[in-house]
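User: Can you predict the 3D structure for this chain?
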Amino acid sequence: MAVSMFNALCALAIMLFLGSQFCWTQEEEPECVCSCIKAAIPEDKAEREEFVENEKKKIVKELHVDKKNLSSETRKKSSAVDERPSARSVGYLGIAMLTLSAGIVLVFDLDYVIKGVHSIGTIIKNKWS
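Assistant: Here is the predicted structure, written as structure tokens:
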């Protein structure tokens, strides 16, 4: 367990300090191949774990992306134009259905409105006469 942890830590340090210039070989002995990296890795287990945690935090901070700046987030807020004839006909059908529904409600209420206006007119006529 300690050997694999050390190998993983050494590989992490190589990636951090050397980038793509790997000089790492998979050996079972707990020794880092690069002397420049070996000096940066603490020997004490507690210090090594703290070093790994700090490096993890640095990597997470570097790789963090603000979701508000992503193109997928801006595309969520805008609608796409659809020029297909079928899309237009479905839209026109929806408008016709909404207009027809509102028209039916108004027609049923029109009789009530006419009676109300007529009764108000009769009341006004009786008061002035």
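Confidence is low (pLDDT under 50) at residues 20-24. The helical segments are 2-18, 35-38, 45-63, 71-77, 85-128.
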